[in-house]
Amino acid sequence: MRYAGCQSDRVLAVKLRQIDYAVRLAHTLSFRKAAAEAGATQPTLSNGLVQLEEELGGRLFDRTTREVSLTPFGQHMLPFLEALLGDVDEIEKAASAWHNPAHKILRIGMSPLIDLKTVERALGPYRQANPNVSILFKECLLDDLIERIQTGKLDFGLRVTEPAPDGMQVLPAYRDPLFYLPRETKGSDHSLHPWQINSLPDAPIICTNGACGLNAALERLFEAEGACLTLYPGYALSYHVIEEWTELGVGAAILPAAKLSATNMTAGPLEGPDGQALEFSYEWVMKSARLANTPTHVNAFRQHIETIAPALLNS
């Protein structure tokens, strides 16, 4: 790997194993858990991370005797490290498809907001009708998702509904109700009840860095409902962190039902002024043109999401 910012244009001696260590630690925030998942000892994992940080020119993690946390540089680099590991999986699948032409691959990219359990409900009939097709899922940030479809690295994408890019076709996928997570304060009322979007408490809404589509989707929702949205000036790395921050009193949050933890005890349904449940809608994204050289199994999936999947996803 070449480090473009280095005047000597030196080659980075970064190993995939080191990147895997960093991603696992970012997700677990525990050296013990990350090492166990990676099948490595804690000293080996720690040394690998030190080497990676030296190559990248900055600390990815803050380490104390009590906790591990991502640095701002680590938060910036994590999506790129995750994407690189995903590319390796794609390379392995592409090589397998070349050596075994009868085995086909369908590549679906998804925003982190997408609930895979919901999507899987729609895939059963397609899998049964196409047993020689392996479905490869890839979690992508929104800009990367569209670029990969445009360049042929993905066959289909799933994202929260927004205006369609040029040259792209969109089809409705499913809907997910929204929940309001109030900011935890001393003496908070924990009773679960609906929250109206036009009369929410005066607390900033915690979001992610925007790459998953959450921020923009909330901005469009509040504008459509004639409500005022105040975003928290910082951002959380994950939906789990968003929940934790509401419990710590940092701010409030709005999340789709599928992204709430099973243990959440404070979230209440978000409603419009008329009492109607508010929700996010999600859509399939694909190239608008049906090219003559498009593989048969890809065309079959397009037909599947046009005709069969809608009823399964919204059941």
TrEMBL record:
A Gene Ontology molecular function term of the record: DNA binding
Coiled-coil ranges per UniProt: none
HTH lysR-type domain residues: 14-71
Key words, A-Z: DNA-binding, Transcription, Transcription regulation
Family matches, as Pfam families: HTH_1, LysR_substrate
InterPro entries: HTH-type_LysR_regulators (IPR050950), LysR_HTH_N (IPR000847), LysR_subst-bd (IPR005119), WH-like_DNA-bd_sf (IPR036388), WH_DNA-bd_sf (IPR036390)
GO cellular component: cytosol
SUPFAM superfamilies in the record: Periplasmic binding protein-like II, Winged helix' DNA-binding domain
Family assignment from sequence similarity: Belongs to the LysR transcriptional regulatory family.
Name of the protein described by the UniProt record: HTH lysR-type domain-containing protein
Organism: Hyphomonas adhaerens
